[in-house]
Amino acid sequence: MRDNGVVNVGPEPLTFHDVIEVARNGAAVRLTDDAVAAMSAARQRVDELAESPVPVYGISTGFGALATRHIDPALRTQLQRSLVRSHAAGSGPEVETEVVRALMLLRLRTLASGHTGIRPNTAKTLAALLSAGVTPIVHEYGSLGCSGDLAPLAHVALTLMGEGVVRDQDGKIQPAGEALKQAHIEPVELAAKEGLALINGTDGMLGMLVLAIADLTRLVRTADVSAAMSVEALLGTDRVFAPELQALRPHPGQAQSAANMTKILQNSGIMASHRDPEACTRVQDAYSLRCAPQVAGAARDTIAHASTVAGWELASAVDNPAVLADGRVESNGNFHGAPIAYVLDFLAVVAADLASMSERRTDRFLDVARNHGLPPFLADDPGVDSGHMIAQYTQAAIVSEMKRLAVPASVDSIPSSAMQEDHVSMGWSAARKLRRSIDGLTRVLAVEVLTAARALDLRAPLEPAPATAAVVRALRETVPAPGPDRFLAPEIDCAVRLVADGGVVAAAESVTGLLD
């Protein structure tokens, strides 16, 4: 819940909006009084068990395959430090700040649930890091997506101890101890169970899922806009998008996509120019035009399913062992990432298929046998100029990579921890490749928009629909109208930015109203 620019974190679930505000927009956080009360009650039970001579996993024992050893009370502080230091074993490129902030927020919410046994002060220190913009450096490799995102979360826990490396609020890399001192944050000396509570969650993969859903929700609307532009510029028909035809196959996403395309193409002079059935010799449009709502609609429905799973996970308190309301501390398997891993993989398939269809529409513009009167490759002077020939190559290269990225990570498992963790989810890996797929889809749709806009201009004096014309005008603010060949890469980058920041959808919606 947002309050005066601050996201309040309590025992209740966070929303998608909360995650995006903190991860992407740098919102500060505050633990609620209810959260502090819940944590205090659970901590009291953990302290009682820590004093007991009976070994309790995660409180007075080692971890994983070493859980059989009862740890002397004098060594338990060292146990927590050793756990965090040894598990902060990531490698490879640095993970994006928005991902780490999402991970931190989601771990904080689980701590605030009162089911982990963390001390309130330790949770408050994590909240202070987020509010101060101090972001631990987390690496690409290290999580198997089971027992949570152990290595990524351990790098965060290491920062709480004043160790490791971070980026400060200005993005500067420096030792964690120095950054904490500058932010007036005291490092924490972890007590019994706290190390485990800080690292045993699915927070990294969940954070990336929430961010991916937000991105794909925007991109699937963009796909409706780009497909409509292509149908129009390729002299296709919008009759196939009629609601009575869509109702024959009542998938909700399909109906939404078809309705969007119908709205976008309304009052098109280009479409009107070939509506006379006696003048038009076309029988049916190609699948990449005619079936756009079926593909984008199925993508919508898959995103909706992923959103349901993410909602369940946002309401979860993932830790092992868990402190129950009746005071019991019980081991469990809730840290397994399979539910998240599956939908992350589903979304990579969605992204690849949307991109594949977009590339096919772009290719039709460039072939004189299929583009219905446009110049070869949309070139100004074919032969001298190459037009958008190589822009389609770029699309094709991205789509090919996206098909490889669509191979599911969640079907793999490499046993670890001396066979204690003998089946893992690979959810972190599924999330990482999905982020690359989303970047690829953004670029592929941008090339289609760029190409379709050029084709619409080349249909002059016929007038495009007001909505598609608005998209062309938005693009023309940074990309000139058709002419002789120019340095094309910067123009593609301009189109990518227009897609990524929602400008394509916003331009269409300035005419149509909000798209579904």
Automatic annotation (TrEMBL):
Write the record's keywords in alphabetical order, separated by commas: Histidine metabolism, Lyase
Q: Which GO terms describe its molecular function?
A: histidine ammonia-lyase activity
Q: What is its EC number?
A: 4.3.1.3
From the UniProt record, give one GO term of the biological process aspect: L-histidine catabolic process to glutamate and formate
Do you know which InterPro entries this protein is assigned to? Aromatic_Lyase (IPR001106), Fumarase/histidase_N (IPR024083), HutH (IPR005921), L-Aspartase-like (IPR008948), Phe/His_NH3-lyase_AS (IPR022313)
Do the record's keywords include Nucleotide-binding? Answer: no
Q: In which pathway does it act?
A: Amino-acid degradation; L-histidine degradation into L-glutamate; N-formimidoyl-L-glutamate from L-histidine: step 1/3
Q: Where's it found, cell-wise? A: Cytoplasm
The record's GO CC annotations read:
cytoplasm
Q: Would the keyword Lyase be found if you checked this record's keyword annotation?
A: yes
The reaction(s) this protein catalyses: L-histidine = trans-urocanate + NH4(+)
Give the Pfam families listed for this entry: Lyase_aromatic
Gene3D superfamilies per record: Fumarase/aspartase (Central domain), Fumarase/aspartase (N-terminal domain)
The entry assigns this protein to a family as follows: Belongs to the PAL/histidase family.
Stated name of the protein: Histidine ammonia-lyase
**Gene name, please?**
hutH
